[in-house]
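Field reference: sequence -> structure
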Amino acid sequence: MDDASIEIDGEVLLRGTESERVFCSWTMGAGVYGIRKSEASFFSSELTVVDASLSRLWRQIVGKEILFQSIGSNQEVLHVSSDSDSVFLCAYEERGHPKGDGAWDADVVHISFKVPPCLGE
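Structure field:
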């Protein structure tokens, strides 16, 4: 797996101080997929937890104050940033990943260092 970008079928859970938790996942809204954040899980069943805090994508953000910014007219991307580093969560997966054919499908969380081209911008 290339740790410069990954795709997951569930949700990202960011744990802060004390009991602070932020769940981020793809959701359907206004007829399109987007990335949303919530204080509760988006899923009714329990998901497998994988600690990614030491992965290349997350280790520079762990332990820092983070900010969230939605990008795209339908909130297709969520920018998660600290004072010096950031990752982007996208509601689409690259079709044929990891090679990709330039097309994107919905219902996954694509995580990367760069703004994914799914925005078509």
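Note: The chain has a mean pLDDT of 79.
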